Amino acid sequence: MVAEQLRATGGVWLSFDGTNIWLDPGPGALVKALSSRPRLNPKTLDGVLLSHRHIDHCNDINVVIEAMTDGGFKKRGVVFAPADALGEDAVIFRYVREYVQEVQILTEKGRYELGSLKFEVPVRHHHPHETYGFNFYWRGHKISWVIDTKFFPELLKFYDGEVLVLHCVRYQAGDKPWIQHLNLNDVRTFLEALSPRLTILTHFGRTMLTAKPWVLAEALSQEFGLAVRAASDGWKLQLQEVFPEESEAA
Ligand SMILES: [Zn+2]
C-alpha cells in the first residue's frame, strides 16, 4: 500500500492539551504535515511515537526528528520506540537519536508520560516484528489505539477505551490466516464485546478500500447501534466532539 499511495501513510498527529506527538510517521509524513491546512509545524512537536518498524509506519521518522530538532541544532523532544527499531538494522539512525533529549524504549506493560500526555503499552501484538498499541489517557478518558495485529482474545481486555481506533486492514476473514492483521469480522467482535462510545476504523488495505470503508462503517453503526466512523486522509477529530462534557474546559 505504501508504493501506491492510495491513502496517505503519514501517520497521525496527536495533540493532547498542548502536548504534540507524532504517531508512526510513514512515507510522506513531513510533506503531508507541511502542506496541511492549518499547517502542522514539526518544530512544535514534543515527541515521536513509533509502534513498530514496518516501513509504512516509520519511513519518515528520521526526517521528522530532524525537523523537530531544527536539523539537530536544538536538542529537544522524546522518541518512544520498540527496542528492535533501534538495535541492529535500526530504522532510527544513531546520529539522529543524538538530536533528541531522550529515547525511551517501549516495553509490554510500560507506562509513559510526555507533558500532559500519559499512555501505556498494554501488550505485545501478534504481528511481524516487535509491535505495540497504545492506551492514551486524556482528562480521565481512555483512548485505545489498536495498531497492526492479528486478533487474539486478550486484545478485548486491554483495549477497552471509550474511543477505540482499529487498524482494519482486511475485509475478508479467514481466507489468508497467515496475514497478521485485523479484518472486518474482528471489528465486529470488538464492537459486540466493548460497545465503545466511538470506534474509528483506519489503516485500510486494498480489500477494505474496494469495499468502501465509509459504507462499511455506516453499516456497522446500524448493526450495533454504535458510532463507527472510517478515517480518511486529512481527517481531524476533536476529542471534545466525543466528550462534549469536556468542551468548556478546552
Ligand atoms: Zn505492520
Any descriptors?
binds zinc ion, 2 domains, 250 residues, Metallo-beta-lactamase, Chain A, 24% helix, alpha/beta, 25% strand
- Count the E strands: 13
In the CATH hierarchy, the architecture of the largest domain is 4-Layer Sandwich
Q: Tell me the distance between the termini.
A: 37 Å
Estimate what percentage of residues fall within beta strands. Answer: 25-35%
Number of helices: 9
Predict the CATH topology of the largest domain: Metallo-beta-lactamase, Chain A
Radius of gyration: 17 Å
CATH class identity of the largest domain? Alpha Beta
Q: How confident is the prediction overall: mean pLDDT?
A: 91
What percent of residues adopt helix (DSSP H or I)?
10-25%
Bound small-molecule species: zinc ion
Query: What does the largest sheet look like?
Result: 8 strands, mixed
Judged by helices, strands and strand pairing, the structural class is: alpha/beta
Given as residue ranges, the uncertain stretches (5+ residues, pLDDT < 50) are 1-6
* Global morphology: globular
Q: How many discrete structural domains? A: 2
Helices and strands, in order, run as EEHEHHEHEEEEEHEEHEHHEH
- Write out the CATH superfamily name of the largest domain: Ribonuclease Z/Hydroxyacylglutathione hydrolase-like
